[in-house]
Specification:
By secondary structure, this protein is mostly beta strands. It has one domain: Jelly Rolls (Sandwich). Helix content is 3%, strand content 42%. The strands form 2 sheets. Strands 1, 2, 4, 5, 7 and 10 form a 6-stranded antiparallel β-sheet that branches. A 5-stranded antiparallel β-sheet has the order 3-6-11-8-9, with no helix packed on it. The radius of gyration is 15 Å and the shape is globular. It starts with a strand and ends with a strand.
């Protein structure tokens, strides 16, 4: 397996939903930007979103940044059928990440939730971002981040959300 970053699952979950007890989940539905050739666990760079769009976590399938690149960007479009829950609470971004144990280089990961992304020349609106510095080799980490009310309120088009991953090898 190439050295690099591995992401097992990602989704945006909204615990509120349009009805009081219904949850909405945004999962990848398309690869938007993959010029840096992120791969799925089978080594393919074609429709890799299919690998990470599952309902239940599976760490046996994942996407990975290509080995040897100083920087690699992957953007996935999320489900377009989300409705505005009319609440600022319960917006959660979750994903699992780790570094391939054979890679000795330092790998950093930036994750962004964006609205209205078109391309790397037209990034749209940044809703939320986080950085994971010097990912520990082969230790699976689960990120579960609840958006602040101001971040959730910045979402004006639930049908146009994207997750952007930037892997940097130092």
């Amino acid at each position: 397996m190439p050295s690099g970053l591995l992401i097992s699952l990602l989704f945006l979950g909204d615990g509120a939903g349009p009805a009081p007890s219904s949850a909405q989940f945004a999962r990848p539905i398309a690869d938007i930007t993959n010029a840096d050739h992120w791969l799925d666990n089978a080594g393919s760079s074609v429709t890799i979103f299919d690998t990470i769009d599952e309902v239940a976590l599976s760490t046996s399938d994942y996407i990975q940044s290509s080995a040897g690149l100083s920087s690699a960007i992957y953007v996935a479009a999320l489900t377009t059928t989300l409705e505005d829950p009319a609440t600022s609470t319960g917006h959660i971004v979750r994903y699992v990440y780790r570094k391939d144990s054979s890679g000795a280089a330092q790998i950093n990961l930036t994750v962004e939730l964006r609205q209205d992304y078109v391309s790397e020349a037209s990034l749209g609106t940044l809703i939320w971002t986080t950085n994971h510095t010097n990912i520990v080799s082969s230790v699976q980490s689960t990120a579960s981040v609840t958006l602040l009310g101001t971040e959730a309120d910045a979402i004006t088009a639930y049908s146009s959300l994207y997750l952007r991953f930037i892997s940097n090898q130092i």
